[in-house]
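To assess whether the prediction recovers the assembly geometry, we first specified each molecular entity separately, as shown.
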Amino acid sequence: MLTQIITFFIFFAVIGCILYGRRLIRTEKVDAVFGNPERALGGTHWVIVGSSFLLLIWLYYSWDIAKGFYPKSANELCQVAKVNDSLLGLKYQFPIEEREFKSTSQIKKENKNLKLIQNEIQNSEELNSQQKTLLISYISKTNQLIPLLTNEDLLEIGTQQKIDDITGKINLLTENFQKSDYPFETEQELNERLKAVDEEGGWGITKVDAGSGSIENTLEVPLVPATYRGLKFHTAAQELNLISDEFFKLRNHNPQFKNKIKELKEEIKSYRKSLSDSDEVASTYAKNIVKIARRIEFASIYPPNALDKMQAAIVKFDNAQKKEQGGLRLIDIFLFPAGTIVASGPSCSEQGSGRWLPKPSDTFNKFILMSKPSVGYKDIPLLWIQMVDVSKMIGFILPDWIADILPGEYPVHTKDGIVKQNFKGGVLKIVTGDFNLFKVPVPYGHIWDSFLRVFLGLVFGILIGVPLGLFMGLNRFAKGFFDPLIELYRPVPPLAWAPLIISVLGIDNTGKVFLLFMVSLSIMIISARAGASGTQLSKIHAAHSLGASKRQILRHVIFPNSLPEILTGIRVAVGMCWGTLVAAEFLAGTTGIGFVENVAKKYFQYEVIWITIFIMGMLGLLFDITLRKIIDKTIPWRGKG
Amino acid sequence: MSDLISQNLNMIFKTPKGETVHALKDLNFTLKKGELLTVLGPSGCGKTTLLNITAGFIRPTSGKITLNNKEIDGPGVERGMVFQQGALFEWLTVAENVNFGLRMKKEDPIETQKKVDEWLEIVGLKGFGNTPTYQLSGGMQQRVALARCLINNPDLILMDEPLGALDALTREKMQSLVLKIWKETGKTIILITHSVEEALLLGERLYVMAPRPGRIHKEYNLPFASMGLKEDLREIKKNKEFSQKREEILEMIWNMEEEIMGKDN
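The predicted structure of the complete assembly is given in tokenized form:
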């Protein structure tokens, strides 16, 4: 419903904007003479055109328009796909969609194979001339099998009857299929079918497993025919399956052929037995010749005109079913532009853009669902708040060895089984967070985890990188000492370190924060160093002659002077960290946006992949905008000094 | 005795190419308290080197320079410096720039504020205390630099082409300001300049320096600075003696420049 409204709205917005744009162009000449800047404020309408156009393309290529206007079309096309799937085997026997008869191409193929082996045998140096003549005689015998199959006179009456029988069945199906009351469905069958449809759900429905709270795969296209037209195709497909099974069981084996092939097989068998172990090459050739003979035996090779009636019947049915599709074919052509719905085995699936370009409505619904803290992804919400006792944080921050270094012993239980608390034991309780204080809300979830990793990596990088960089910028010894150390690790792409760091420091936060620390450290050092060494000498001299000490110059002149470079460095570092983090979360981990995307990739959850892409883009943008605001506030003098 | 005395001052640099440059050779001069000395000379005659040594930023190769009988061996508050480009701290406001020295000495903030207001008024920037420095024009920036230097009450003010980057009109106003401050405070001032006119107008004494090796070529005692305290500077420029001196010095510098070019070719 919403999609329909949006589609119409967008459609009219685009048209309206184009009309408005045309009016602007018409008034352009007037404005050029008389000047009317207000009338030229046409920027927004291009924004509407652009974004509407993109959304329209998205709706169209992801089939959301089809879903909005014809929600049952996918189900019906699934039934059509079933018919096509059943018809495929039969169609392949004839030059309907292929260039030649299956029989023709198979004969061509086996003749080619026989010729190939013949050449090899004749040029072989390991075979003696006696073996060669014998093997070549087998080849010609195999070759002579083919005319036995393709000779119309040899076609048995029983086989001919069966072919006519199958043709008759196809014709009957075609006839029935075109009737309006095909197939016959009892009241009970109807009710059962509708119940099954109800249970299965609609196109692209999202199922949430209540127990585990995880998002299961969406059901792409419902399989059970929901409409009577669908049922028609469904039933025809089932019948066609039976017919084609019958056809493929049929073999065009007349007595002459049977005798000849039996003879040949036995001859080769006894020949192979007579060969000694040293004649392995001849044995292998003989085996290959038998293989070809067998392939000819089991191929559906018929005389050239034996199947003409059957071909006509199949074409007739195909035309009938195409005609019966009616408007469905238009939907398929116009609303599924880059793919269609394909039935394979027990399921129907979207092919083409419908697979990897999820429908906006689906994506939006799934995003809303995932945002619910009770659903989230893999039992963890995207972003939520939990109440954490302050004592846990204190216990996390204070190291446990504080209790260890205190004098005295930890309490030991008495013989009555009572543990008496003492001072050292009490301190241990505090440093391990084993007590109760008030609770405070703390955010958690995938988004928060990713954010926290970037934040911590960045903060550590700044805390260590900025002083070190300033020091390196001012002190030649420090530059000489630290520069090679940093240049040792910096040129390596950060992700190249990731597997090593993650296996040493673990897949949890420590490893990732350290990796991001490495990324931000080098950037911060380089930018702080550039800032410090770029300080004008006259400023340092001025501060000096105003009575500032070295430390004061560092604090009041060099540091603020380096701030623009440092802040630019932070901006660069945030971008780098963000990129590295997502990739690191791909590699290993149990939380984070990158982790979500990686898992979604494994299960082909394209909606989730698009949601994570969207979230990451938004967060990246948010970081950059925040930093730009901070930069504008802190260093308004940049570029104006 | 609060004189600036230079004794056999020598400064020899080694360039990265290995050439030795004799920037200053056997410089001897005495500057009495309250005198205004302008130094003029072609590029590379060691003017700025002399100023940097006096400020204590670099040490001479030999000889010594004393202020109040104390040898100069590093930067000090008693020698204030004004740079060509202001060298202001653009992350601070005007008032914060001016009180920078006092803040570094951790002086009483109320007292400091009073002094800042006083000095801003003297240099003509009353009410600009909270303006960010980067919003000021070039002339205003130099006023701030002057105030920042003077608030520390130095014995000696060193000016390294302080008005070089200003437009003609602003420059003239600033020249009057320098003279006014000189008169009101009675400070000893060394002013380096490229402009012959400026050197003549402001200098009570004038050294024309010559390059390779850097040395004092000629010394003048001039009346124009004292005249400038009473008269309009533009009137002085029309003075016959002024034009005569100007032509003489210009000729001198031209000859030096030609000599250098000749040497190079």
